[in-house]
């Protein structure tokens, strides 16, 4: 599923990013990388930005829906 399909408080793992080099560099500069665990904190109204927290780095980032749609995630598995 893509990140924009997750629900508030879901913890997901970034599996892949289906975007060009520019978007990949932007995400990396924001601290979002493949393999990171991310918690969805908030969805902006009217299909606005998605606020997420990277649980590995502690960084909170607002992502536009278009970019979030390119981030493929799966629910995190707890041991």
Automatic annotation (TrEMBL):
Signal peptide (from-to): none
Keyword Translocase belongs to the record: no
Alphabetical list of Gene3D superfamilies matching this protein: 2.30.30.90
Superkingdom, taxonomy of origin: Bacteria
UniProt cross-references to SMART domains, sorted A to Z: FeoA
Start and end residues of each Ferrous iron transporter FeoA-like domain: 1-75
InterPro entries in alphabetical order: Fe-transptr_FeoA-like, FeoA-like, FeoA_core_dom, Transcriptional_repressor_C
Keyword terms of this UniProt record: Iron
UniProt xrefs under Pfam families: FeoA
GO MF entries: transition metal ion binding
Name used for this protein in its record: Ferrous iron transport protein A
């Amino acid at each position: 599923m893509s990140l924009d399909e997750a629900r508030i408080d879901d913890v997901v793992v970034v599996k892949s990013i289906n975007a060009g080099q520019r978007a990949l560099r932007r995400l990396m500069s924001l601290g979002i990388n493949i393999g990171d665990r991310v918690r969805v904190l908030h969805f902006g109204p009217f299909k606005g930005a998605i606020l997420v927290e990277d649980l590995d780095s502690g960084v909170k980032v607002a992502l536009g829906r278009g970019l979030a749609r390119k981030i493929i995630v799966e629910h995190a598995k707890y041991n």
